[in-house]
Recover the amino acids of this structure.
């Protein structure tokens, strides 16, 4: 199985900040990587697919990058509604696996 | 707009089999070439992909659960189902059904059910 390692596991920031989460795959996954936002009591929401493509309707303050084994997810200009847990997920092969999540909250 | 809705028992006893169903609305489960997945999240933990079934009935399972999991599809009811046998407390989780998108986001989980909590009691 491909292991997905996210860092940090938790993050505190202020409105307007730029925050970056990293995700490292245990082997080369090209750009077969998705990012999700997950709020308590709701289903996860796909934000970015193919490592850097913004899903339709997702605000442009969200962005993703990277390829191979190292990926980043950035929120530029944090908004109150962005408080959530964020997950990376690969789809290079089966089984599909997720990172352990990064919990984002306000300082 | 495709919508998914999980249903099933909220409480199951250890060693038993839990059966969950995902009902699809807003489109036919048999149209298109999609994968229909089950994903779970134990309390306080991350997301775990359980397995998936294709429109044509082909299945793939997470090796960590493969010996206990069966996913099936019922096109006449527009549903797909998850059976997880010999459950233990570690199977207590919110279970989601999900499907990929229609274009470039095909391999992303775009459509999700709201999730159903399954608690395993001793």
């Amino acid at each position: 199985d491909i292991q997905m390692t996210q860092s940090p596991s938790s993050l505190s920031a202020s409105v307007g900040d730029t925050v970056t989460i990293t995700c490292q795959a245990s082997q080369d996954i090209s750009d077969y990587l998705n990012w999700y936002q997950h709020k308590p009591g709701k289903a996860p929401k796909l934000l970015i697919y193919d490592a850097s493509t913004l899903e339709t309707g997702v605000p442009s303050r969200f962005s993703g990058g990277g390829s191979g084994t190292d990926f980043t997810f950035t929120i530029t200009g944090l908004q109150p509604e962005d408080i959530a847990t964020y997950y990376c997920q690969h789809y290079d092969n089966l089984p599909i696996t997720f990172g352990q999540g990064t919990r984002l909250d306000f300082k | 707009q495709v919508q998914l809705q999980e249903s099933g028992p909220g409480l199951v006893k250890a060693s038993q089999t839990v059966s969950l169903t995902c009902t699809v609305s807003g489109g036919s489960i048999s149209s298109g070439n999609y994968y229909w997945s089950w994903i779970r999240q134990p309390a306080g933990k991350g997301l775990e992909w359980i397995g998936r079934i294709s429109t044509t009935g082909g299945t793939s399972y997470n090796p960590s659960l493969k010996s206990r999991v069966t996913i099936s599809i019922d096109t006449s009811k527009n549903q797909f189902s998850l059976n997880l046998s010999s459950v233990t407390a570690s199977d207590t989780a919110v279970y989601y059904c999900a499907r990929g998108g229609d274009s470039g986001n095909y391999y992303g989980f775009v459509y999700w059910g709201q999730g159903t909590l399954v608690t395993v009691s001793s």
